[in-house]
Amino acid sequence: MSVPKVSASRFVVGVDVGGTNTDAVVMSGSAGVLSKFKAATSKDVTTGVISAVERAIKAVDGMNADHCAYVAIGTTHFVNALITRQHLERVAVVRLCGPATRATPPLADWDAALAQLVRGPV
């Protein structure tokens, strides 16, 4: 996957959702960090991410979401859920593959207990 180039009039947003705080930063290739925002991570992670991104963008004069080239999101929530085996949901695994990979079923190399927690109907 290639990362789109950011022009002088466009910016990128980086978001990190941690167990304690959600951080958002607005960056431009030419100017570096334009703004940042930190808030307590909300129970509803989506609402917290949206709020952090909106507030970080609003902090930059003359910028709005239309100027955003892309958003990169990182989170420890997924890793924490895997480690603690809590707050996991069943998922669908869709694989498009050829004959060579049909012999290996989905989640084949996962820990058996973890695979059982997340494996949906096949």
Write the layout of secondary structure elements.
Blueprint: E1 11-17, E2 21-28, E3 32-40, H1 45-58, E4 68-75, H2 77-84, H3 112-118
Structure description:
- This protein has 122 residues and is an alpha+beta fold.
- It has 3 helices and 4 strands; from the N terminus they run E-E-E-H-E-H-H.
- Strands 3-2-1-4 form a 4-stranded mixed beta sheet.
- Strand 1 (11-17) and strand 2 (21-28) form a beta hairpin.
- The radius of gyration is 19 Å and the shape is elongated.
- It starts with 10 loop residues before the first strand and ends with a helix.
Task: Tag the structure with descriptive keywords.
4-stranded mixed sheet; alpha+beta; 4 strands
Outline of the structure:
By secondary structure, this protein is an alpha+beta fold. The protein contains three helices and four strands. The protein is 24% helix and 26% strand.
